[in-house]
Design a protein that fits this description.
Shape of chain A: globular
Protein name (chains A, B): Polyprenyl diphosphate synthase
Number of strands of chain A: 2
Family (chains A, B): Belongs to the FPP/GGPP synthase family.
GO molecular function (chains A, B): metal ion binding; prenyltransferase activity
CATH architecture of chain A: Orthogonal Bundle
InterPro entries (chains A, B): Isoprenoid_synthase_dom_sf, Polyprenyl_synt, Polyprenyl_synt_CS
Largest sheet of chain A: 2 strands, antiparallel
CATH superfamily of chain A: Farnesyl Diphosphate Synthase
Distance between the termini of chain A: 28 Å
CATH class of chain A: Mainly Alpha
Keywords (chains A, B): Magnesium, Metal-binding, Transferase
Oligomer: homodimer
Largest interface: A-B, 33 and 33 residues
CATH topology of chain A: Farnesyl Diphosphate Synthase
Strand content of chain A: under 5%
Number of helices of chain A: 15
């Protein structure tokens, strides 16, 4: 299984040769180290938490790419494409188990509390993926349902990343909960940007296929916002997507057919609404930070991370 | 996801109607309750442990059935056959997360220790499944490799089941480790019988397909023991399996072709060796019990459970 995990993290290529591939943005581990510092502990105290959240994140990527049929991640073929579905399942399971082991082997009460938060976040993440998949087969999904799904799928683990270092550093539950509030809204901003990149992202930057979310019929924020907006573009989009839902031909769509759908989403206001939503969530996240007394340097870095999340191109 | 989980546990049928389907033998939860009693605690103390080990067991069944392509379990179509691969992955993940949550929400130091043992056992179980899959594509697997794989795949979680209730009841590590030794060898006995049932089991009793392990080219104990035995039947079996490994036609084999392979395994002594191995492991398991001071009634039940494991037909 090490070979498969090493390939996923970009340490070796598909032929097993050493490689320095893209291993992801490491937003969650960065947050976990800052989290320890926010509670007045040394950043090293957050390391097991950083490892654990990154392992859970990668467990979810391995399984989600297989469930969603995604063929590209981080500019490379996904694990199930290279090593087969069984390896993607197994190695995902192993990373999940390892995440808990890394925390529990510390053996302290704080580590137990950290593991509990991580487990709850992981269960929500799985709930979110279940909602995401079920929405692909539904004609209508409300903006509220979409935000709830994205809060589970992305918000919960980012929230945990921002509390886990603090908990390991001995922070009380109130501090941890306030940090989680920042992380949760940061997660919603992150996911809103992800949804924009999933339709209009540059494949050279994102490392994913063009129109990747449209290929999977994802009911992401720009889509549900466009459908909820009303007006001619919204209605035409609704007709097209309803027909797509009944058809099995989406896999063979041309670039133009995806471009038509993307243009209608934009015309109906879905792109602009989602950009604004990212900024709204960014603001709420920054405001939550004022509820925790922390070194100014740490606060500045958490703000900078939130800024990065909304302007990123990959 | 509840619908899929309820189907897997036999509470509803494929159409969602209430059902009283076979939910499994519940060997692991039975052991977890006895485990608490072995440490002098009330059986109720073991309940979260019983729930957790049964959830981990069922997580592994959901994923393994998908990876192995198994179509029947407990006299019903497997989850991936009825609800699709994505649901089997997702609900398996959810049961795994829930197993940890059930233990950690207790919030005690003992619960942290119990979760750590469960996590380590789960990682070994995943290792064992990885070994099992890799052996399907290898021409030769030694008896030792097979026993190591089965110790990981089956022994580790049964060992955890026998220690988890005791740990929740406050037992020290030495007591827990000794109970795990009983459970580990019980697991090896259990798996040896499983391997016999996987070839010669009655589908009416097992709820699986005929020749299910041969269909999957499993290098189970009877097969590796027969290949290691030498002599004409062993050599003929080796030639057949080597040819099978290069061919993609195993899926279309007739009942006679499987029967030929089963007869050669028996003729080479693989069936008898595996029966004896089950009895050897049973004996070692019972002997380990003498290392723990426990109520005689509890000891008698652990012995009875070991006896059941080696004579069972399903």
């Amino acid at each position: 299984m090490d070979t498969v995990a090493a390939y996923h993290f970009g340490w070796i290529d598909a032929q097993g040769r050493p490689s320095d591939g893209d291993g992801g943005k490491a937003v969650r581990p960065a947050l976990a180290l800052l989290s320890a510092e926010a509670a007045g502990a040394a950043p090293e105290v957050g390391v097991p938490g950083a490892v654990a959240v990154e392992l859970v994140h990668n467990f979810s990527l391995l399984h989600d790419d297989l469930m969603d049929g995604d063929e590209q991640r981080r500019h490379r073929d996904t694990v199930w494409k290279v090593h087969g579905p069984a390896q993607a399942i197994l190695v995902g399971d192993a990373l999940f188990a390892l995440a808990n082991e890394v925390l529990l082997e510390i053996g302290t009460v704080e580590a137990g509390r950290a593991t509990r938060r991580l487990t709850t976040a992981t269960r929500k993440l799985i709930d979110g993926q279940a909602q995401d998949i079920s929405y692909e087969h539904r004609e209508r999904v409300t903006v509220e349902e979409c935000l709830e799904m994205e809060g589970n799928k992305t918000g919960a683990l980012l929230a945990c990343a921002v509390s886990i270092g603090a908990v390991l550093g001995g922070a009380d539950d109130r501090t941890a909960d306030t940090l989680e509030s920042y992380g949760y809204h940061l997660g919603l901003a992150f996911q809103a940007v992800d949804d924009l990149l999933g339709i209009w992202g540059d494949p050279v930057a994102t490392g994913k296929q063009t129109w990747s979310d449209l290929r999977q019929r994802k009911k992401s924020l720009p889509v549900v916002a466009a459908l909820a907006a009303g007006g001619p573009a919204s209605e035409r989009l609704g007709e097209l997507l309803a027909a797509d839902a009944k058809s099995n031909d989406v896999d063979s769509f041309s670039e133009e057919e995806f471009a038509t759908r993307a243009a209608l989403i934009e015309e109906a206001g879905g792109r602009e609404w989602t950009s604004q939503e990212a900024r709204r969530q960014h603001t709420v996240a920054i405001e939550a930070l004022s509820g925790v007394d922390m070194p100014e340097r740490v606060r500045a870095q958490l703000v900078a991370l939130a800024d990065f999340v909304v302007v990123r191109k990959r």
